[in-house]
Amino acid sequence: MVSPLVALTPKVQSAIAAALGDDYREADPVLRPSQFADVQVNAALALAKKVGMPPRDVAAKIVAALDLDGVCDSVEVSGPGFINLTFSSAWIAGLLQEVEADERAGVPLQPTQNIPIDYSAPNVAKEMHVGHLRTTVVGDSIARTLEHLGHNVIRQNHIGDWGTPFGMLIEHLLDVGEGSDEAGLLVTDPNAFYQAARVKFDAAEKAEPAGSAGDFNVRARSRVVLLQAGDAETLRLWNELVDLSKVYFNKLYSTLGVTLTDLHLAGESMYNDALPGICEELESRGIAEVSDGALCVFLDGYTGREGKPVPLIIRKSDGGYGYATTDLATIKYRVHDLGAHRVLYVIGAPQSLHLNMVWDTARKAGWLPDDVVPVHVQIGNVLGEDRKILKTRSGAPLRLMALLEEAVDKARAVIDETRPDLDDTLRATIARQIGIGAVKYADLSVAHDSEYVFDLDRMVALTGNTGPYLQYVVARVRSIFRQVGLDPAAQHAPILLGELHERALATHLLGFGDVVAEVGDTYEPHRLAGYLFELAQAFSAFYENCPVLKAEHDEVKESRLTLCALVFRVMTTGLDLLGLESPERM
Fold it and tell me: For residue 54, is it left (φ>0), alpha (ψ between -120 and 50) or beta?
């Protein structure tokens, strides 16, 4: 299956070679969308200077050499040298019939690569907040898309499950008692558990006289030493903290509808044993050096104020390890143990400098070969109406679960008003699908590295560029097929394109495979979101102007049902790649 532009490219290139000489056989035909035709060939403008001819004369020579019988109904030169091409409806129908017969609806299967993807990454014993929304949603969509393209995607949820705070958390767990209501907060309200431990620690730090062995802060620091030394009882308590947090993570992931599970947990702790070796190798090979008591890597090109070199600290002066050490162990593991061809990091944009220093250090050490590509999928902020980072009125980060619950409540209010005829259980299901879908689509429909304003009222609207609008198109197609008692998957009648809106819809459907492949190459789900919105608009125009069940002739009715069935397949597949559900009714 090929799109019109892909099919057209070699034909135009052959015409350029015939018109201007074989030296130009590989020239870019510069195919662009046109408001005056299906496509515009702009190659003449680019080639005019090279061949020493006016652009319109170049265009005329190319047109004279074009062989587009059966492909185009109209070929004309316009303006300074544009070539406008209008495709034959029969040719478009033939291409679309191939897509309709393809079980993948035109989406290619790419040569399989191993692609670890690092996303979500919450902290144990801390609630996920709105800042985790984008990395989780964008990362999950990219993972789904790469898998659909045939790649072996290895989800890596790099949770924060190690380090000094765990001494404090373990001691607090012992104080409140394992199995107590307070311990249960790790599942229902992790921040409350963490803050209670933090308050006790800070209070002990400020107490006079200095703490004794039984004071909370002293016990917490001692517990960190035991944890890092591998003390069995301390590790048991640490595992309990992690297990309780897993319950919380999984509840949120289930609510959000993402594909992360316990199998994908790859936290900081799994690299702990490798950290001393990382430091030893870098130091022994002269890549790292001791500076002010800390082991550091100084890389060319990384300077701060006054031109002073910026260090990547591999081991702190107190002997502890930081993010740089763990991240070096991580990239080494993903390349050598997981056999990565590409490694994706779906994390905040401010981490760019850190990641680049880690990757450059890993390349210098030989742990990151030149043929393995690390990619930072930079994540922008979610803003409130004041265009500042979205927070609660008290200034705290907004809890992600609370935000999702509010979205479902908003969607329920819309459904209760528009579909009071549906039973309560069904309305509750639809409200969840719409509410969660609305939040995810709002995030995915903008470039992942840009900011956007969070507006629930707009997100759950059934009109405009929203998730519910796309979901409504799917529900509308389901309704059409319910009326005739057919399964969309069983509809395969020949496609006829007699009306402009049929043709516009068909042309847009042909672009699905290219868009999915582009998302896999660029890691930009907003391109798929934009395509689906335009498809929804094309379908709405078709539905309003081209009667389906009341078509004048049976073959036209069957053709339009086939178009509807293909819209259904493309929309449900596309929504699934974004991580949105497709409601039965709306």
Answer: beta
> Quick check: 78 and 34 in contact, CB under 8 A?
no
Nearest-5° angle of CA 530, CA 157, CA 193? 110
Three-state helix/strand/coil letters over 55-89: HHHHHHHHHHHCCCCCCEEEEEEECCCEEEEEECH
Among 230, 328, 323, 317, smallest CA distance to 279 is for 328
**CA dist 478 to 122, 195, 330, 368, Å?**
38, 49, 46, 49
DSSP, collapsed to helix, strand or coil, labels residue 121 as coil
Q: How confident is the model at residue 130 (pLDDT cuts 50, 70, 90)?
A: confident
User: Of all helices (H) and strands (E), which one includes residue 335?
Assistant: helix 323-336
Q: Where does 74-152 have alpha helices with state H?
A: 89-101, 131-148
Residue 144 has, within 13 A of its CA and on its CB side, a CA count of: 22
| pTM for the model | 0.92
Task: Compute CA distances 300 → 182, 292, 360, whole Å.
Answer: 50, 20, 10
How distant is the alpha carbon of residue 252 from its chain centre? 18
Q: Say if strands 382-383 and 82-87 run parallel, antiparallel, or are unpaired.
A: unpaired
CA angle (567, 568, 574) in 5-degree steps: 85
C-alpha to C-alpha distance for 299 and 570, rounded to whole angstroms: 48
Q: Which residues contact residue 466 at a Cβ distance below 8 angstroms, ignoring those fewer than 6 apart?
A: 438, 441, 442, 458, 459, 460
- The 10s digit of each residue's pLDDT in 22-74 is 999 999 999 998 888 999 999 999 999 999 999 999 999 999 999 999 999 99
Q: What is the pLDDT of residue 285?
A: 96
Q: Which two tokens stand for residue 188?
A: 């229902």
> How far apart, in Å, do the first and last CA atoms of the chain sit?
33
Other beta carbons within 10 angstroms of residue 387's beta carbon come to: 10
